[in-house]
Amino acid sequence: MAVVGIVVGVLIVLALWLATGVRIVKQYERGLVFRFGRLRSAVRGPGLVLFAPVLDRLRKVNMQIVTMPVPAQEGITRDNVTVRVDAVVYFNVLDPARAIINVQDYLFAIEQVAQTSLRSIIGKSELDDLLSNRDKLNQGLEVMIDNPALGWGIHIDRVEIKDVALPETMKRSMSRQAEAERERRARVISADGELQASEKLAQAAHAMADTPGALQLRLLETVVEVAAEKNSTLVLPFPVELLRFVEKLPAGEVGRLRDTLARQAPATETTVAH
């Protein structure tokens, strides 16, 4: 009986020992087995992993894409503007062995490289690039972070600049600049409209000069428009019938006739009432 008890005890201890050497690696993980501190060559895939509890140690590595926010970094742009820029880095582990062996803490290392690279990008860029040309800056920032990360078995999926914080004085200056630009465009549009209107008026004047009857029709249209208002009064400096007579006179006679009318003839007043 004593021997049976010993055997049962040994079996129980062995079962417990074997149970501690069983781990489950999930689909998005990979397992690294270290035996006496030395990495065994095979990387354990997802599923049930068996190892010697005393001799071996299992280290799991997450292979999912990690979203890491980069704290806002303050810097001076190439055109001497102080800004604060924050970003976000998306990366994942490609080689679990290098990510664990080549760097002590790859998460902390990526964060530090991202911060220093972001400050470097701020110093190399102008304010307009940070505000309107972010795609190019994102690509440059991704290359700067990806170079050291490749040696750690890390792949940088993409880097995005989130926000650019400007000083209040710069915001007010940009607001005044935008307002001045809008006012300039409004004046240009108004001037273009006046130029086009003057060109049309000049064309109309040439047409009326070639067709004397058109001037008479335009005068009648003006009388009708004035008559549309109640108690409207239209004052003519000379009778309308003189227009045809004046058209047939030579240029010198027209001048003398104008002077004579100005001294002697009273203004002819026509009243249109409803």
Write the layout of secondary structure elements.
Blueprint: H1 2-20, E1 22-25, E2 29-35, E3 38-39, E4 47-50, E5 56-62, E6 66-76, E7 82-93, H2 96-101, H3 106-124, H4 127-132, H5 134-150, E8 154-165, H6 168-210, H7 212-227, E9 232-236, H8 242-247, H9 251-263, E10 268-272
Antiparallel strand pairs: 1-4, 2-3, 2-5, 6-7, 7-8, 9-10
Helix pairs in contact: 3-5, 6-7
Protein name: Peptidase
Organism: Actinocatenispora thailandica
InterPro entries: Band-7_stomatin-like (IPR043202), Band_7 (IPR001107), Band_7/SPFH_dom_sf (IPR036013), Stomatin_HflK_fam (IPR001972)
Q: Could you give a short description of this structure?
A:
The chain has helices spanning 2-20, 96-101, 106-124, 127-132, 134-150, 168-210, 212-227, 242-247, 251-263, and strands spanning 22-25, 29-35, 38-39, 47-50, 56-62, 66-76, 82-93, 154-165, 232-236, 268-272. With 274 residues, the chain is of the alpha+beta class. Belongs to the band 7/mec-2 family.
Could you explain how this protein is built, in words?
The chain has 274 residues and is of the alpha+beta class. The chain has three domains: 2-60, no CATH class; 66-171, Band 7 domain (Tetrahydropterin Synthase, Chain A, 2-Layer Sandwich), CATH 3.30.479.30; 207-274, no CATH class. 53% of the residues lie in helices and 25% in strands. The protein contains nine helices and ten strands. The chain has helices spanning 2-20, 96-101, 106-124, 127-132, 134-150, 168-210, 212-227, 242-247, 251-263, and strands spanning 22-25, 29-35, 38-39, 47-50, 56-62, 66-76, 82-93, 154-165, 232-236, 268-272. It has a three-stranded antiparallel sheet. Strand 2 and strand 3 form a beta hairpin. Helix 3 packs antiparallel against helix 5 (134-150) and helix 6 (168-210) packs across helix 7. The longest helix has 43 residues, at 168-210. It is rod-shaped and about 150 Å long.
